[in-house]
Write a structure and sequence with these properties.
The chain has 77 residues and is mostly beta strands. The chain has a single domain, classed as SH3 type barrels. It is built from no helices and 5 strands.
Length: 77
């Protein structure tokens, strides 16, 4: 696979959802876990498990993106 972009929809209030970007990337595909699951790596070497239907090959040669998880960030202890 090499480089890929992943489907990562964002919800922003008072914006037209139809015109927002759906895909984030590029990321590097590291490993195929099963027929339907892949590991992708971002610029910080963080791994993310991605289903096959949410990944698409990419020919973008720019720098790798960073993975931002959804939800509220946890407090540091």
């Amino acid at each position: 696979w090499g480089r890929a972009i992943i489907k990562h929809p964002t919800i922003k209030l008072q914006r037209c959802q139809k015109l927002l970007q759906i895909y984030k990337g590029p990321f590097v595909v590291v490993e195929q876990l099963s027929a339907n699951t892949y590991y992708v790596k971002d610029a910080n070497d963080q791994l993310l498990k991605v289903p096959r239907d949410q990944i698409m090959p990419s020919s973008i040669e720019s720098n790798l993106s960073k993975i931002h998880k959804r939800g509220r960030p946890r407090r540091e202890v």
